[in-house]
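Notes from the 1:1 (GR / supervisor)

We went over the backlog. Supervisor wanted to see one worked example end to end before approving the batch request, so GR pasted a single chain during the call. The sequence is below; no edits were made to it. Supervisor asked that the structure be written out right there so they could see what the output format looks like.
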Amino acid sequence: MTDIEIVLGGVSLIVRPRDTETARLIAEAAPFSGRVQTWGDEVYFETPVDAEAEPDARDVMELGEVAFWMAGSCIAIGFGRTPVSRGDEIRLASAVNIWGDAKIDPDVMRQIAPGSPAQVRLAEN
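Structure output shown during the call:
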């Protein structure tokens, strides 16, 4: 599957999709755009995608994982603590599908302002 580029304000992430139904749905919907929202050390934005929870959906993720939050039809990228985190974990509001992996620098991600444009497109490899 082709890599997916997510641009959040001035920050570009290249996401290597996993072999999941959610990743396929996102790739098929690209290109699309939205507006960044933040919640603690998480950025997320709405998508035109409607995905069901996959068998391995979970609310705690690892740095570098890119998620889809079914409850809000949003791509969610956690990179540190959120208001529901316990200790130093990256815990999102509810279960998400992990659909890709990217190199994520928390210091850079913290510079993305709420309301910034979010763009998703197939990467030019």
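Supervisor's comment: Strands lie at 4-8, 11-17, 32-35, 37-38, 42-46, 58-61, 65-69, 74-78, 90-101, 117-122.
Batch request approved.
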